[in-house]
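To: structure subgroup
Subject: Chain for Friday's discussion

All,

I'm putting the inputs and outputs inline so they're searchable in the archive.
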Amino acid sequence: MIQLLTTRSETTELLKLDRYVDLIIPRGSNEFVKYVQDNTRIPVLGHADGICHLYIDREADLDRAIKITIDSKTQYPAACNAIETLLIHQLIASKLLPLIVNQLQAHKVEVRLDQIGHKLLANNSSDLKLATADDWSTEYSDLILAIKIVPDLESAISHINTYGSRHTDCIVTEDSTTAKMFIDRVDAANVFHNCSTRFSDGFRYGFGAEVGISTQKMPPRGPVGLEGLVTYKYQITGDGHIVKDYAGENPKPFTHRDL
């Protein structure tokens, strides 16, 4: 059945139909998705926030890092898989920060720097806003990027797991051991190495049309195609079999094999 709902009251009525509706996949603003999640007993496949991070490690190729940063922020800034926070290792910050801020500003990105970043840019930071605690938990969906200088990989992972929305996070590094640690420990549906966060998409994953994306722990997680909506129905044919014969003393054994 296809039905067009055009008002909040109609949507509210739909959310009450848990006897008839198996799943809701809300697509729209954060406010809308959160409203659906908070006002129904029907399972909801979705995500309310897309606070994605890019961490540039001390062993990163700087040209590659700049290219990935620009694409992850500016290719389509309103997308839920665009980055909102950039983390930079302190050992490369003095060299990388001026270059990356210059490129971001050339793409009309409003940069918000933490205090360490402001000090590193010295006289060149007068036109840059100072990042506040709220910036780390804000999805801008716009040409705005918060930048934080971190002392090490541990701090980057901790920041992401504290403020991230478990959507998409990426590390840029040439050190495969560091990359593996980041990928293993960052709690997100999509964790990347050396590529734009904008690749987290059902079509780009080869799922066909993307019907939704989920940041929850239970499957399906991440971008969801039609196969992700498949559930199971178990069909059993017996010949008078009863459970009693398979329990108690001297039970018959089960033989499990693929049919």
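Points worth raising on Friday:
DSSP finds seven helices and nine strands in the chain.
Residues 52-199 form a domain with the Aldehyde Dehydrogenase; Chain A, domain 2 fold (CATH 3.40.309.10).

D.
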